[in-house]
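User: These chains co-purify. Model them together.
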Amino acid sequence: MPEAVISAKNLVKKYKDFPAVDGISFDIAPGESFGFLGPNGAGKSTTMRMVGAVSTRTAGDLSIIGLDPNQNGPEIRSQLGVVPQADNLDADLKVRDNLIIYGRYFGFPRNYLGPKADELLEFAQLTDKAKSRVDDLSGGMKRRLTIARALINNPRILLLDEPTTGLDPQARHVLWDRLFRLKEQGTTLVLTTHYMDEAEQLCDRLVVIDKGSIMAEGTPASLIRQYSTREVLELRFGSDRNAAVAEQIAGIGDRIEVLPDRILIYSDNGEAELQRVTEAGLNPITSLVRRSSLEDVFLRLTGRSLIE
Amino acid sequence: MSIDVSLERAKEQAVAGGVKPRRFGGWYVAEHRLMVMRSYLQTMIATGIGSPLLYLYALGVGLATIVDANVGSEQAAVTYLVFVAPALLCSAALTTATEEFSYPIMLGFKWNPTFFGMNSAPLTGQQIINGVVYAVIIRMLGQSIVYYAFMLLFGAVPSPLGWLTIPVATLTGMAVGTLIMAYATHLDEDRGQFNYVMRFGVIPMTLFSGTFFPLETLPSFLQWIGWISPLWHGVELSRVFAYGLDEPGWLTAVHVIYLIALTVIGWVVAQRLAVRRLNK
Amino acid sequence: MTTIEAPPVAHVNRPFLLPSLYAGNARSVMERAVKATASSNWLIVVSGFFEPVFYLLAMGIGLGAYIGTIQTAGGQEIPYAAYIAPALLAVAAMNGAIFDSTWNVFFKMNFGKLYDGMLATSLGPFDVALGEIMMALARGLAYACGFMLVMQVLGLNLSWTAILALPAVLLIAFGFASFGMGITSYMKTFQQMDWINFILLPMFLFSATFYPLSVYPEWIQWIIQAMPLWHGVELMRGLTTGIMTGGMIWHVLYYVVMVVVGLTLTTRRLKALFLE
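Assistant: Joint model of the three components:
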């Protein structure tokens, strides 16, 4: 593996006595797209703030572009683009002015920032909104503007905290498409998400994180291979019957998970398992065979769903 | 070219990228603040011109007719207009400082958290506070210059040193404003605290700081209000420059030291609190 | 055997006036405002009482020590504090009413989206307008009672007619509140809201609040006399000093007209904004 642009060893962040991040280690290579997958409150955002060199770590080692954020915060941040979870665009300024003033923070001259802002508005598909007020933009537009803003300094590393939370499906796809282009251009992407489809779409490699600790690490495919079967059979018998039925079908498939609203049967051949269920005289209200996803990996690792 | 070299180069670039923000960061924030103020330009100009015109005319001309008619010239060293004008100048700066150092700070930390955005760029908490202060100083200076021009127009400034009231008024605004800024930086939730600051702090201060009548008029057990009031110190100092108010030299020194001390305390505390608040 | 009871039918008295706009239930709007005030910011509301008192102490007692007595428009000499106290009361009535009917309403309209919810029920825009205005009046009356008490203690109520200042406060506040709410409905940004202060400040400074109009050239006097606050100040001053004149009826009439015009404007605007 090439030398890491971000390297964390036993990273800890405590608020009073509560460990939000409890000794995690990871390395991110240049040009890589790296994800933190986990439910809300897992410690993803805290990790992102430490990597963003705005939150002081309680213990452990952290090096970003070979520098220590405790000493070189401004230097590190000059090379980062940050897309926070909650937009903090300035509502008092027009769309284009938001980009220009943000570029000023890095010390770029205005005659450079003008054309750069126009180029980024084009990239974010917001050219015709250049003179709009920020409050008049839709949620997806605001997020694209925030991403454009994060690119004003041609960052080496782009940090995205829950980039598509709260967006409608179409807006998410537009956003993913923009992020793909950045990845193709060689930008290192680091993102947190609690959406497994987003993690599968965008991440070369990811860590599953829960309660401040890393549960597993790998590519999306290898994690699924390692922690789940190829297919999953989803059965619904009605919420009051699921538990009772589960006992009758014990032994079918490699593993069974009983959720409040459905039963999951893990197997390399879902159709075959479905046949065995019907042969046992059970008639589910609905049945569905699908590929395993990171959701299943998370369920296996923590016994809980990603979205609760 | 190996990856190793490229990481080394990235490091060099980072070090180079930190130079300008470290040196000029505060001014970048000030630039942002002034850009935001520009969207309030119309009301700012209207206040900047309307407020001196109205107050100087209403109090310095209108009210003055009654005061001057009742206060014999042997009692008062100067006309009421000359007496009250420096106080109005300082109060105007104080009002602006109260405005600019309260809600905009809450806005930047909470309602529209642009300060966190600045901090994710290379700027530090100290620089953000400094930038806000620079921008407000610029606004207060501009406003005080206009106010002073109106004072000249009304014939309210007998002394050639009168122009020194401009920096004094600005300093008065700073002495109160930076303390309010520190408080706003500390404040997590707005439950109308600034209303109390206005009603029990700024308004009584404006009324009882030897502004409209000399402090000695107050019963002696209430005169401490003036002694602790930054506005009283600012107004008295302004009067020394505007018409040569007769006061001992040590008292003039106390005015200057007191105003600077409060400014520095508020400023430094606000910086510390901002750094802590941003470092979540 | 079970009987299915009909759901209780809400008893709504459609009043004779403005049946499409008014459900005769402004009280519930006001009730909400009282509860919201009681639960969140009653201390702030209480603190509002102190502002005019501070002014009275500073200008009336502090500055008054230098001025002594002052000649009223009618030629009588009265202490300076007794001269400005009724004016400050009128100003307080104006400020309170304007704050409640402009900033407060502006926030609810543009941020709280409170009215959309209210108007989706059986309430009409007139209920909303009247409810908010009555709340402003109730608050204004409470302040006025406190202030009159302070005046009494300081010996600034020179005649028994001072008691009539209380209904007069209501009238003044009603005039400003009904107008303020209508004007606010046109406002979209904070910057526009700031302009309200540019009308209030000169009125506060020039409406014979701190000294008689006679110090001004005649044309300025005419402008001031066209503005509402001057009428309020003169009305209050006549009542608390007991220097009553027949001309005071015109001040009262001025406010009655203001209330009618203001309410019409406000209701029409609310209807246009929310029901069309």
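Chain B has one domain: 39-278.
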